[in-house]
Every structure is written in C-alpha cells, then in structure tokens.
Design brief:
heterodimer; A: alpha/beta; Rossmann fold; eight-stranded mixed beta sheet; two-stranded antiparallel sheet; 13% strand; globular; B: alpha/beta; 12 helices; 54% helix; elongated
Amino acid sequence: MIDRILDGARVVVCLGPGGVGKTTTAAALSIAGARQGRRVAVLTVDPAARLRDALELPDRAGEFHRVPLPDDVAGTLDAILLDAKGLFDELVRRLSPNRRLAESVLQNPVYRNVAGAFAGSDAYMALEQLLDVVANPAFDLIVVDTPPASHALELFDAPDRILALLNSRALEYLSEPIRILGVATSRFTRGVLSGVLGMLERVTGMTLLRDISALASDFASVAPAFRERAESIHALLRDDTTRYVLMASADPHAARDTVQFAADVSEFGIELDAVVVNRVLRLPTPATESRRPAEAPPAPPARWPATLSRNLVASARELAAVQRAQRAVIEALRSGIASVSSGNADEERREPLWAELPALTPAPTTLEGIDELARGFASAPATARRIRG
Amino acid sequence: MPAARLAIVTGKGGVGKTTVAAGLARAAARAGRNVLLVEIAIPGRLASVLDVDELPAVPTEVRPNLSAVSLDEGLALEHLVDRLLPMRLLSRRLLSSETFRIVAAAVPGILEVALLAQIHGWLEPASGIRRKGFDLVILDAPASGHSVPLLSSPNTLAGVASFGPLGDVVRKISASLRDPKRTVAFVVALPEEWAVAEAIELFESLRDELGVPVARPLLNAAYPRRFSKTDERLIGEAEAAGTIDPELLVAAHHFLERREAVHRQVRALRNGTGEKPVELPYLFSPTMLWDDLDPLADAVQAGLDS
C-alpha cells in the first residue's frame, strides 16, 4: 500500500478532521519513506508530548531535527515543528524591501496582537513552510501533517484567501481608514466621517484604526512577494507529485465530518490518493465461529462464578457490536467518499486506495511503536479499482 | 450538576465534546432546568445528535426544556456593534462594508468577544416574548486550540480597548468568565495518551492562566471495569488449559486492555490536574441520538455530584 502512495511522490499531505491520528500516521509514513531509502522531511504540528519525545523534537519550533532511526533504515528523517508566528515574522523580514519597514510591521501593536491576522491561520503557515522545505534540495520526500481544522477549506482556501485579500482594495482602503465606510470623497462627507470615526475611536477606546492603517500601508510593500508565494503554493498543491492521504476514524460520530472533508477537498479540484481508516478493531477471528450457529452465544467454562460468565458473554457481545458498527461506518465512508469525489466526468478517474490501520492500545508513542505502525502500513492490504467516470 | 449558568465544554478534536455537551444538556433538562445548547465548533454535529436537519440561528426549543442554536459570527458581531453604536444607520452602514469585516477580523479578539457577548445575552432575562433567560447555557466549544483564544479574548481586547462602552462589555464578560457562580468549563479527554496530555495542558491554561473555573476533567468513552483480579486469574488459567471459547478470550483481553488504558489515563489526569476525573461510559450502541444519552447523563450527574 505504502509504495503506491509514496512512489513518484514529492509531497504527501495528511488530511482529516481532528483526533483521527494524523500526526502519528504522518510520522509512520515518514519512517516508511525513510525505509525506502529516501531523504524525508516531516512537517508536524503540535504533537502530543510523548510523540514529540519519540521523534526527539527540540522544544524550539521552526528548526529541523534529525530523527535517530534504527540502523536498518537506509534513508534519513528530519522533523520540523511548525512555528506559525515565528515563521510569519521571518517571512515579513525576508520579504520586506528593507529592514526598517520590516521592523515597523513587526512592532505594530495590531500585528503583534493578531500574530499575523493577514495570514489567518496555522493552515496557511504550514503551507508557507512547505514551500520552503520543497525548495530545499536536502529532501526528496516531504510529509505534511496538517493542522487541526474543522474544514478542509481552511487549508486549501488559505492561499486563495491571501491572494484575494492582496488583490482586493482592502489594503488600500485600510491605509486610509476613512474609506472603511466605503463612501465617496466629497470633502463634506469626509469631514463628517472623520468626526464619526473620531467618535468611534472614543467610543471603543482604541487607537486601533490608526494602528491598522499604519500596518496596512507598511504591508502594502511586502504584498507583492506574498502574492507570488501564494501563487506558488496554489501550484504546488495541484502538482502531480503532491499526494493526499485522508485520515478517518471508524467512529460513527466522525463519519459525517470525514465525508464532508472529502467533499470539500474535491471541490478544490484535488483528488484523494488514499483513505486510511485508523484505529480499526481487528481481532483474531475465533476458530469457533464456524462451529457455532451465528446467533448462539459462546458458552463460558462451566462452574465459573455467575458474574464472571455473564460479564464475559456481555463483553463478547458488545465487542461484536462495536466491530459491526465500525464495518458499517467504513462502508458508509466508502460510499460517501465515492459519491463526493466524482472529479471530471469525462476523464478516467481513480478511486483512492483504501487501507485500515489497527487500533493499538496504548496508541504508539515511541519510535519503535511508530516504526511498527509504518511496517503495518507497508503490509496493510490496499484496495482500489479503476473505474470509468 | 453545575450550579453555574454557563457551561463550556472543550477538549481536543475528536474526544466527543458534542456528545458530552449533549449528555450534560440531557441531565440538566430532565432535572427541570431550561437549557440552551449552543453550537459553535462544527456546524452539523449537534444537529445530528438532536436529530434535526439544521440548527436555527436563534434559540429554538427542540425538545422539552431544551433549546438549541447555531451561533453565527456575523450575527453576533452585528449585535455587538448595535449595542456599542447608538446610531443604527451608521452601524448598518459599517457592517455592510466588506472592509469593515476585514478590520474587525484584525481587531484582536473582537469576533470572539462578540460571540461571548451574544452567549451572555442569552443568560439575561429578555424583554419581549421570552421573559426569563435560560437557566443553563451549554457551549459546545471549539477544539482546545481555538478555545483558549476564545476565552482569553476579553483579556486580549481589554489590552487595546481599556475604556468606553466596549471596555465595559469586555470587563463584564471577563468578570463573568471567572465567577464560579456563573461559569464552569469542562475539559473532555479520551483514555489515550495524546488526548490526556492535551487535556492537562488545556485544564491548566483555563484554570491558571485565564482564571476560568474548571470542573473535574471528564474522561469520555471509558470502558467499564468488568473483571476483578480473581476473574483475570481464572481467565488466564482457562486460556492456558485451552478451556475457554476463543471469542470470549478475545473479548476478555480487549476489555482488560482497554480498562488498563482507562486506569492509566485516570492516574495521568489526576496527577496532571490535581483533580479526580469523572469517567463517562463508552457507549456501545452505534446510534447516538438524544434519547440514547441517558447513560451519559447519569454518569455526568453522578460524577459531578459525588
């Protein structure tokens, strides 16, 4: 399964709603890539403390760190923790025509308070970071663990939103707060409105309008460089060598979110390459199943305490119910995702690969555990069929 | 059950916040309180639990003693601006401007404060049709990464708007969020290391940094304790002797493993927060509708009252 995702891939993006195990799976995919002998970089966002320890990530975000892999791994793995605010500061510095201007932006109280409200989100910053890493010749495979987002839109929309903002006249308006009211420029109206704005500042107790206006006019000169980057991100996301893995859970409550997520992705013209259902209860199939009629409960050993016997039978029944529910969810995911990712009807389209990963108790939080998951990934049965759209 | 009138349910994505919020609502509603469930995180989740197509943008009774609403950012901002600007014409004009929305989004914390102001408005007696406010407002809050900015927004905004009417609103909300008689936050976790680590972090920032009263942590989807030490020994012996049905054995191992995970995470939560967590049961039923939530409501009630 894993080869079919990684072969020919330069970037692998792990998507999915929160809580489905994106970070752990991204780590497993990266190790699998390194096992193929590739030089892998993994961009990760806010991993749980023990996973962070397992990857030996430094406390400081925004720096690459070589992950010590077992000796039999041919490739290498470097991990970097996303530092949204720091990255944006750095971009402002790098893209500003001069240092004075950069400092003026960075010192602006509004900028400092909103930590890059122009950028909007961690999602956008993850993509900015991705752009830098892709340009780095030290890596030939980049795995991206996307930030928690309730919508795929947040991620794919990010560059377009920035472009829209930069292309709109908003910045221009903002540098002249009076135009916030969108009013023509008769001197009389302007006079009245300055008065009103002055009152607004007194009412709200802010010097904010002035700060925003200063920020906007400073930012205007950085804008073209940001625009260029946003366009590069847009292209990278749609490149043939960029692969998308949608993570899902077999939890009935998350199914709807996952299908919605897939629908959003498809709306952006992006095709899913694989869907991985995580934490699937996979139990050894009892040999007795064939011996017994399907509905008859298994019998506990004779002469056991009644409570124990009752509890055993109840546990078996509940476990079977959970498994049945998970199968139903996976089926619902399959048909739901197939119906939303219709793509271009004239072209041959590919159904994504499907794979299931087992529920591990406890969830893997050590390098060995993740490596094991990576091997499980490699051997996970994948299913896909080519269909005509 | 919480004596406070605003209950904020939060936790990492995927831990079951919506279900727990609904369970809390069910417990309070059946005890006769007039409850409002507020959806802010993922539109649609709560609607599917309540088995309605879509939640309305104004509080609407969906079950006896239970109203629900999907909180809209734009609407909340509109109400806030209306409240701050006495001139209606001006506020209309301001709100209809795209640029204002961008400016508003850049004002640190303004949208969040607008949401909180709207929620607090529902707690106050309203003039007009509904005479009294809701007894309890339950907020199905966004995942932890977004909850902290939401709840710290009054402080952020207070930094730039220290006086004037907006300053008054901000101070009022901020005081209410710290008042145990008015507000309580619930941090939800799953019996998994990743969820518990984040729950502890969230618990600490709510309690220690923001000063928001936090209830005992809720450990959701906890497997019950099915087997005693003696049971475990008997099962082990039967396994060795090959006298136990393999299907039962698999189930026994699964429950023992999951119970051990619960045990470990209860300990981790207690060590991390200094509070004894409340275990909420794993619901084995595949449907999760309002009428199935009694076991959850019972557990929340029993846990919080003990």
